[in-house]
Amino acid sequence: MKTISSIIKAEKIDMGGVKIDQALPVKTIQNIDPFLLVHHWYNSFPGGQLQKDVGVGPHPHRGFSPVTVIYKGAVHHRDSLGHDSIVRAGGVQWMSAGKGVTHSERPAANIASEGGEFEIIQFWVNTPSQFKMDKAIYIPLQNRDIPGKYFEGQQSQYSVICGDFMGLEGPVKAKQDLLILNIDLKPDETVEIEVPEYMNCCIYSLDGQIELNGTSVNDNKSLVHFNNEGTVIKLTASKISRLLLLAGQPINEEVVSYGPFVMNSTTEILTAIKDAQMGKMGILIEEF
């Protein structure tokens, strides 16, 4: 069985007026290669707002994949490639930023105007250097596009966003070997998950109460980071619990980041900043 390296309690941070829980990076761990960032945003919108006043407006990216998993509500994505889509609860937005793209991410207009619950996790996956300057790609996935099953003989279930797991293949084909799962555990059920030793692995607990390989995780919004020895993770829930598993083959390359850019050197970062200022990552003018 895999042993636990650390349990990271998410820290509350302010992102331009938006309060989110940040599980990665933290002071003690900057990244879990190839995963660079894990943000969890929950809000209950009161209504009576304009969409242009909520969420995150146009901003550029280069060199990695920002991925958004939607648990409640809906996300409206627009980008400089011409995409304009709304992905609802149970869906995923996967964007490979490549050499550059400008996009916005906002709660759907009806959530702003009418109110309602909104919950997402955004995580960043680093891109190997040889692919960082590829053309940007955007993949909108609704709940129906993501295969899922019940664990055998259980009421607990899983869905596969990326990678192969227990006979299911996720719809996203990444540039490296990844396994991304959503897991919904029912009380008093135990399931086992196998993750290859060559993959770095962590599990984010959105809520509930779980035991992982004999260790209790009672704090919600915590990231459990595993050592690479062993392959089996045994999960037991005492309450209804929602988990996001992130596992991937490490890239083992230098990471130099600045805001929305992730490259391999300071020179490349300076080039990215200049290219964004010159409009080479596209221009996005939102219409409301």
Keywords for this structure?
288 residues; mainly beta; seven-stranded antiparallel sheet; globular
Describe the model.
With 288 residues, the chain is mainly beta. The chain has two helices and 26 strands. It has helices spanning 109-114, 266-277; strands spanning 4-9, 11-15, 18-24, 35-45, 56-61, 64-72, 74-79, 84-88, 92-96, 101-107, 116-126, 137-141, 148-150, 157-162, 164-165, 168-169, 178-185, 189-194, 200-207, 210-212, 215-217, 222-226, 232-237, 241-248, 256-258, 261-263. A seven-stranded antiparallel β-sheet has the order 1-22-19-24-17-14-13, with no helix packed on it. It has a seven-stranded antiparallel β-sheet with strand order 2-3-4-11-6-9-12. A four-stranded antiparallel β-sheet has the order 5-10-7-8. A hairpin with a 2-residue loop joins strand 2 and strand 3 (18-24). The mean pLDDT is 96.
| Share in β-strands | over 45%
Low-confidence stretches: none
Task: Give me the Rg, rounded.
Answer: 19 Å
Order of strands across the main sheet: 1-22-19-24-17-14-13
Q: What structural class do helix, strand and pairing data support?
A: mainly beta
The largest sheet, given as strand count, sense and whether it forms a barrel, is: 7 strands, antiparallel
- N/C terminus separation: 51 Å
How much helical structure, as a percent, in the residues? under 10%
What would the average pLDDT be, to the nearest integer?
Answer: 96
Tally the beta strands. 26
The SSE string, one letter per element, is: EEEEEEEEEEHEEEEEEEEEEEEEEEEH
Task: Identify the overall geometry.
Answer: globular
- The count of helical stretches stands at 2
